[in-house]
């Protein structure tokens, strides 16, 4: 009855056409079965029943049995009952050659899993004959051979599963599991491993030429078990005599030979077994692996069929893995300090013998095979680097290693460049080149002279071939030489990492100069392949300093750049715009004399054509180098505007000329903006995007002209702009402001204008000040987000700091409207985490802005006639931000800033000190005389009060949080500032109000406040006071 219920439930649950409600009930029922202690017995019967149930019913039944063993540990009687039931089933299904159809692979896997679980539980006690029982199934009744194929396959499956369960080092196990599994392995070694190893020999002997599937399974099981059994069970004449022929067996078909590959993999596992150095070296020598691998390399699949479709890449990868394991182990032996001299000598000879084999696979045309041996080649070179002196035999191996690395960096004959269908292959090859570069650096670290000579000769010979063959030369050879030339700078340039203490090699620097001379003098910039042209430009930019010493070459390279920025290939064209900018920016002092010519030559590239992104744009699939979308092209085009700014503004160029160059570029942009503004105002998206691009371009041009920033004193920056130039860019600012006033409901336009404003500062200088009210009006519109306000305040910080001597009148005029906008942002309701983050940022920027005003002697604007009506609101806002210390408000940084500002205000408007703080303070003397009448009482009533509102707030916990502790430090500083400015009045106030409320006499409080020259010491006292008073 229960069996049919379970069977029906399984059939309903896994039938795609079942009613969903019924299916849900079936799954619930099956889930409940997992906790039913009797269900497993029914499920065993359902699994083994004749006639057979459906495959899904049998699979789920076994899963419930497995769960019973794992989750509800069965008692010994139940386990024995389950053992007998399954053994009887195996006997009837797999026990003889004549049995009916065996189970499917998925059922065999599930049955194997169940039997393995039982093995783990019962092998120690309860099923000691486990191996004998299943080994018996490999032999048919009355036979003395292992001729029962079904039994053999099940036996091998179980052996593989046992290893995976108790010995696979890749599986993480809990400590108690690890200990139990170690005991099982010890028990198996004592009881059964000998007969298991003998069974492998029997199977290989019987099926070696008859059944490849069984031979492959046997080899894989040996490969698994060898890591934890006695190696002598494998390394003996009988076993090796069976495996060696499988490695070398001929394969007349063009297909893969899975048995041969498995045999190679088995040897890889044998060699990889952990052993003492002497034993490992002896085993590698004994197995004669060098000859075996050499024979495999010479076999038709890896030699005769090389570079053909019949080349056996699976075999190549398997043998490469074997070589990688052998070489890595030999290096480990040599690096082990405990290795004796005799073993070291043998290992050294073996390593020397294996390096050519390693290089054979490293040089393979298939990157998968090459990548397989990169780890061991890395190990070899790392070992070479550690040797105080490289022995002669190893020195001889360096040139072939370096040559192999270099040739592997070459595009192979089947590859193309720039083909969109092969972008994945291209990315993989560039990744391989990065790995090869690491190997190349290692060779340079071992023998720098060899590295310099080989690379110099490669480049020289390639340019010689270019001279002879011209455009007919194979682009791959030229690409390789230029790639190596690009990498050569790591040795020839300072701070690149390859030179001693990051200093360049003098010889390499000299060779690089010769390479550069040869490259510039060659006709390479006219080579027809785009990859070569890209390399040419990248190298010119990378080695810009060469042109500082050889200015005669600059004109020729500039001509090439001007031609290449017009190249028909979009990837070349857009990349060249960036590289051209980098080139002229670095060499601006040397190229100023050709500014006019360059502007005329590239003027046709400057018109902006904004394009709306299409529906097929997929940002996730693009990269910086291959993205040819309209947006990416415009981003590249901006580099041309900055480049023009760079070459037009050199010190040697008269200011009038600079202004003329700027005007020649900007006037067409002004006209374009004027034409598109009506459309943009009417809501035309394309016109709006065009205005956006023009604004960004104007800002970028300005940045090219001057990277000066107000208030900076860096020696690397140029001086503030001349008036003639700032007047010219004031026109750009006016044009942008017109666009901003018309379109400031668009966040994209506001963002572009804010970016342009920050860049225009460098060329406008103090001329920006009269325009500030307009910028504020446009950039802080009702549509502006809190994030935008915060970013604009950050820009204003720079303006106030940079022009503090000239900004008072403008700041006085704009302060109230500015703060009104900011207060609007601060008071907006928030929704969501992003909003909270933006509000916290705006609070910090607002307080920082007030701090900048106070710190730059501009405090007068806060209380001027124009702004005094707003002063109360200003103070209230700062007090409110100081007061808010609730953990969820994210306001602690703002609170700290607010208390700091209150302290600064006390210092500015509190008048002269009437008290002092020192190790031996004197009593306060004199009456407060604040700058603002009544401010002394204001300090006590408002500033002092807010300190204690916070300190008494139960959410304020400075002992448990670093940010809160910083707020506490600022509170301590403010309390001391109030005392300094109000003296005896303050003391009387706290003695009559504060101390009684705290229940203290106040002596310790006063002593700490008046003697703590570092406010942190007073803060520590307040912290202790809080602990005792709460």
Account of the 3D structure:
It is a single chain. It is built from 46 helices and no strands. By secondary structure, the protein is mainly α. α22 runs antiparallel to α23, α35 packs parallel to α37 and α43 packs across α46. The longest helix is centred in the middle third of the chain and has 27 residues. The protein is extended. 39% of the residues are buried. About 2% of the residues have low confidence.
- Unreliable parts: 497-501, 616-626
Percent in strands: under 5%
Rg computed from alpha carbons, rounded to a whole number of angstroms: 41 Å
Terminal CA distance:
70 Å
Q: What is the strand and helix layout of this fold?
A:
Layout: H1 2-13, H2 20-33, H3 39-48, H4 55-71, H5 76-94, H6 105-122, H7 130-136, H8 149-166, H9 175-191, H10 193-207, H11 212-225, H12 237-248, H13 258-272, H14 277-286, H15 289-298, H16 313-335, H17 341-362, H18 367-386, H19 392-395, H20 398-408, H21 423-446, H22 448-469, H23 475-492, H24 506-521, H25 530-542, H26 544-549, H27 554-564, H28 570-586, H29 588-591, H30 595-602, H31 630-648, H32 655-681, H33 685-705, H34 723-743, H35 747-764, H36 772-779, H37 786-802, H38 808-827, H39 833-855, H40 871-883, H41 892-909, H42 935-951, H43 962-982, H44 984-998, H45 1003-1011, H46 1015-1029
């Amino acid at each position: 009855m229960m069996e049919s219920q379970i069977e029906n439930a399984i059939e309903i649950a896994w039938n795609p056409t079942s009613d969903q409600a019924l299916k849900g009930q079936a799954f619930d029922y099956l889930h409940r079965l997992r906790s039913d202690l009797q269900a497993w017995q029914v499920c065993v019967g359902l699994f083994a029943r004749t006639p057979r149930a459906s495959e899904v019913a049998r699979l789920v039944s076994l899963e419930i049995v497995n769960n019973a063993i794992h989750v509800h540990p069965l008692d010994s009687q139940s386990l024995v009952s389950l053992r007998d039931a399954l053994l009887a089933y195996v006997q009837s299904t797999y026990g003889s050659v004549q049995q009916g159809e065996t189970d499917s692979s998925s059922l065999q896997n599930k049955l194997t899993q169940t039997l393995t679980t039982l093995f783990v539980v019962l092998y120690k006690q309860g099923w000691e004959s486990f191996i004998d029982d299943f080994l018996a199934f490999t032999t048919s009744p009355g036979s003395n051979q292992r001729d029962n194929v079904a039994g053999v396959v099940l036996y091998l499956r179980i052996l593989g599963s046992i290893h995976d369960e108790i010995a696979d080092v890749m599986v993480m196990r809990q400590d108690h599991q690890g200990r139990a599994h170690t005991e099982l392995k010890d028990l198996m070694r004592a009881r059964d491993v000998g007969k298991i190893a003998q069974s492998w020999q029997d199977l290989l002997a019987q099926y070696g030429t008859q059944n490849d599937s069984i031979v492959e399974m046997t080899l894989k099981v040996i490969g698994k078990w060898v890591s934890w059994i006695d190696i002598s069970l494998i390394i003996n004449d009988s076993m090796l005599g069976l495996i060696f022929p499988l490695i070398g067996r001929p394969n007349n078909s063009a297909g893969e030979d899975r048995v041969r590959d498995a045999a190679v993999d088995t040897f890889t596992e044998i060699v990889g077994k952990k052993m003492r150095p002497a034993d490992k070296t002896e085993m590698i020598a004994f197995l004669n692996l060098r000859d075996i691998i050499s024979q495999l390399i010479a076999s038709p699949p890896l030699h005769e069929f090389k570079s053909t479709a019949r080349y056996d890449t699976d075999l190549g990868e398997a043998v490469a893995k074997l070589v990688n394991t052998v070489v890595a182990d030999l290096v480990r032996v040599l690096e082990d300090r405990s290795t004796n001299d005799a073993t070291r000598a043998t290992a050294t000879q073996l390593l020397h013998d294996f390096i050519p084999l390693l290089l054979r696979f490293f040089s393979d045309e298939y990157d998968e095979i090459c990548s397989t041996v990169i780890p061991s080649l890395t190990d070899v070179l790392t070992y070479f680097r550690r040797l105080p002196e490289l022995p002669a035999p190893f020195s001889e191996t360096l040139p072939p290693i370096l040559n192999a690395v270099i040739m592997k960096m070459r595009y192979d004959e089947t590859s193309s460049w720039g083909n969109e269908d092969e972008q994945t292959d291209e990315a993989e090859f560039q990744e391989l080149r990065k790995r090869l570069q690491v190997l190349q650096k290692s060779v340079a670290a071992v023998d720098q002279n060899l590295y310099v000579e080989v690379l110099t000769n490669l480049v020289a010979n390639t340019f010689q071939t270019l001279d002879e063959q011209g455009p007919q030369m194979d682009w791959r050879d030229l690409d390789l030489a230029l790639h190596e030339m690009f990498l050569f700078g790591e040795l020839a340039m300072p701070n690149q990492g390859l030179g001693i203490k990051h200093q360049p090699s003098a010889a390499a620097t000299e060779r690089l100069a010769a390479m550069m001379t040869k490259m510039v003098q060659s006709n390479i910039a006219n080579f027809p392949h785009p990859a070569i042209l890209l390399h040419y430009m990248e190298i010119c930019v990378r080695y810009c300093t060469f042109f500082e010493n050889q200015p005669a070459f600059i004109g020729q390279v500039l001509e090439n750049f001007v031609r290449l920025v017009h190249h028909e290939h979009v990837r070349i064209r857009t990349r060249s715009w960036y590289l051209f900018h980098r080139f002229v920016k670095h060499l601006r002092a040397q190229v100023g004399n050709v500014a006019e010519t360059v502007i005329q030559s590239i003027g046709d590239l400057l018109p902006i054509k904004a394009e709306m992104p299409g529906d097929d744009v997929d940002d996730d699939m693009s990269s910086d180098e291959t993205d040819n979308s309209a947006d990416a092209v415009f981003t590249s085009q901006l580099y041309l505007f900055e480049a023009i700014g760079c070459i037009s503004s050199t010190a040697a160029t008269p200011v009038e000329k600079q202004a003329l160059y700027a005007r020649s570029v900007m006037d067409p942009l002004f006209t374009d903006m004027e034409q598109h503004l009506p459309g943009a105002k009417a809501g035309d998206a394309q016109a709006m995007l065009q205005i956006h691009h023009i604004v960004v371009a104007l800002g970028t041009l300005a940045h090219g002209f001057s990277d000066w920033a107000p208030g900076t004193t860096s020696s690397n920056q140029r001086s503030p702009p001349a008036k003639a130039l700032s007047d010219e860019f004031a026109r750009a600012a006016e044009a942008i402001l017109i666009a901003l006033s018309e379109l400031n409901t668009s966040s994209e336009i506001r963002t572009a204008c804010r970016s342009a404003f920050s860049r225009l500062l460098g060329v406008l200088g103090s001329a920006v000040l009269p325009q500030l009210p307009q910028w504020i009006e446009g950039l802080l519109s009702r549509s502006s987000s809190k994030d935008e306000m915060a970013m604009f305040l950050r820009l204003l910080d720079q303006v106030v700091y940079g022009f503090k001597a000239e900004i008072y009148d403008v700041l006085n005029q704009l302060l109230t409207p500015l703060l009104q906008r900011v207060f609007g942002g601060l008071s907006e309701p928030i929704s969501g985490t992003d909003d909270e983050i933006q509000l916290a940022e705006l609070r910090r920027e607002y307080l920082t802005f007030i701090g900048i005003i106070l710190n730059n002697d501009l405090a007068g604007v806060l209380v001027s006639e124009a702004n005094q009506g707003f002063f109360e609101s200003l103070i209230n806002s700062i007090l409110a931000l100081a007061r808010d210390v609730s953990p969820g408000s994210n306001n602690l940084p703002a609170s700290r800033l607010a208390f700091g500002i209150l302290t600064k205000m006390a210092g500015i408007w509190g008048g002269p000190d009437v008290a002092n703080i020192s190790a031996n303070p004197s009593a306060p003397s004199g009456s407060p005389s604040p700058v603002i009448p009544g401010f002394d009482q204001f300090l006590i009533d408002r500033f002092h009060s807010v300190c204690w509102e916070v300190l008494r707030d139960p959410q304020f916990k400075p002992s448990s949080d670093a940010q809160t502790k910083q707020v506490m430090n600022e509170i301590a500083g403010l309390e001391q500032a109030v005392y300094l400015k109000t003296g005896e009045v303050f003391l009387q106030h706290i003695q009559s109000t504060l101390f009684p409320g705290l229940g203290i006499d106040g002596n310790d409080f006063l002593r700490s406040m008046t003697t703590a020259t570092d406010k942190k010491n007073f803060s520590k006292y307040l912290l202790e006071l809080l602990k005792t008073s709460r």
